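Input record (Table S2, row 382):
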Amino acid sequence: MSQRAARGLAAALVGVSLAASLLPQGAAEAAEPRSARVCSSCHGEIKKQWEKSSMAHSWTNPVFQAFLADAKAALGDGAQAGCIACHAPLAAVTGDLKVTDPVNQEGVTCNFCHSVSAVDVSPKPASYTWDAADPNLMRGPFEDSESGSAHGSVHSPIMTQGEFCASCHWYAGAGEGLVFEGTHPQWKASKAAAAGKQCQDCHMPAAPGKASLIAKKTRDKIWAHHFPGAHTAGGLDSVASVAAAVESGKLKLTVRNSRGGHSLPGGGASMRAITLEVVYQDGAGKELARVPVQTYDTEFADANGKSPVPKWLAKKVARSNEIPADEPKVEWSEIPLGAKKAEAVLTYHFLLPAYRAALVAKQVDLTGRDPVVMARTSVAIP
Ligand code: HEC
Ligand code: HEC
Ligand code: HEC
Ligand code: HEC
Ligand code: HEC
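Output record (heme C complex):
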């Protein structure tokens, strides 16, 4: 048995859901998971897309690393084993708990996803089964793959369904309402899911093409691997809208989630927030007031009631108010005396302001995490 396969067994003992029983007794050298670079010789386009996604940086991401250091300081070095189950999953399943192997540092990488053989769709963290017996057998959407000698191929229905993503995008704690990653259950309850739209349909949009440079077939559907989301340039365009009207002497604001197949900000509870602010002006266009109207987010509190705290310290929900997938949110604002114009602005914050300040003080690289205006609208006040 290779060192890695042996470490794999050790990982099963620390509680990662792993198909250890699939390791044949006395198996000869099990193949080892390979770097995305190996795949790129035949799947270059897919590799180019994937490497820009946040899943390719789920381990190296400086914001993740800063929070991981905090988690270890608060809970001890053992905390890392829990985090890597989703942020460096090949390290978890091969027992490389210190994440020293460069392949494991690739985060949510090709040879992790394509060797997942089953998902226990539940709020348990990392509820996947990774096939340690044969990391060279690729699970994918095709029933007639011609991959030649590079790797075996097998059709996997789960890879084509949102349930596959649930293994990391559904994660709940022990307390009431403690849902750290709730994207999967939110999606499941949405009209998008009822209409058959999978996570893949929105986050891996398909187009005709070839799955590999050397493939003979042109297929109707090749799924993109950019995994677009809030961190993608333009990823927040037209995702939400805000409408404003004066009713009964007050400003009525209607906020809609237009494209999300789940609530917004969507995932990453206690990390992200969307704020709604109104700027009032007088007849001369001079700013009279800047009024924070609402914050849409989920924030947790620790055992002492301190809030916000990140998911690993959460003991209860301090507040939860997100923009649901299929219903608008209506908010009201008092119009100040003399106001002639109101402008409502909806802004996406990748990090709660309280965390942002702490990360700035630690000089963590926050490139690409400036708040983004998602929508704005103006209305004249009679
Ligand atoms: C987060 C998990 C995940 C990662 C990481 C990932 N894939 Fe995929 N891949 C999928 C899913 C899911 C599908 C099928 C989508 C569907 O059928 O709805 C797929 C489809 C494919 C296909 C079939 C052709 C196509 O694009 O539809 C190939 C080939 C492939 N992936 C190769 C790769 C390579 C190479 C990498 C790394 C550079 C990679 N994948 C990274 C989940 C992943
Ligand atoms: C069950 C899977 C899972 C586990 C376990 C997990 N995470 Fe996450 N984490 C995620 C997902 C999924 C996201 C992305 C959510 C999103 O983008 O909406 C995320 C996002 C984050 C982010 C935000 C990154 C950014 O750039 O904004 C941080 C920080 C983070 N996790 C830290 C940790 C730490 C530290 C641990 C261990 C104590 C941990 N996570 C355990 C799944 C997990
Ligand atoms: C020597 C070339 C080559 C290399 C290297 C290679 N592949 Fe493939 N792969 C192919 C070909 C060819 C196909 C078949 C495409 C088709 O049938 O349309 C394929 C198909 C696939 C499929 C689809 C399987 C199915 O049944 O749906 C997946 C997933 C996949 N490869 C993942 C990977 C991953 C991950 C790596 C790296 C660990 C990798 N491949 C390395 C050539 C290669
Ligand atoms: C109908 C299309 C649609 C479906 C279905 C859908 N999403 Fe999304 N998702 C979006 C849009 C649009 C955004 C961008 C808005 C945002 O990032 O908040 C988004 C954002 C996200 C984010 C990023 C949030 C962040 O913090 O950066 C994650 C993670 C995510 N989706 C995961 C999933 C998963 C997992 C599923 C299935 C369980 C899914 N989505 C289903 C449209 C969809
Ligand atoms: C092994 C765990 C794992 C699996 C399986 C997984 N993800 Fe993720 N995903 C993560 C983590 C961890 C992050 C956060 C990375 C970070 O921000 O550092 C993330 C982030 C994302 C984002 C955020 C993009 C952005 O710009 O904010 C999207 C979208 C996403 N995942 C979609 C999916 C979809 C769709 C699937 C299923 C096809 C899937 N994920 C499967 C762990 C996973």
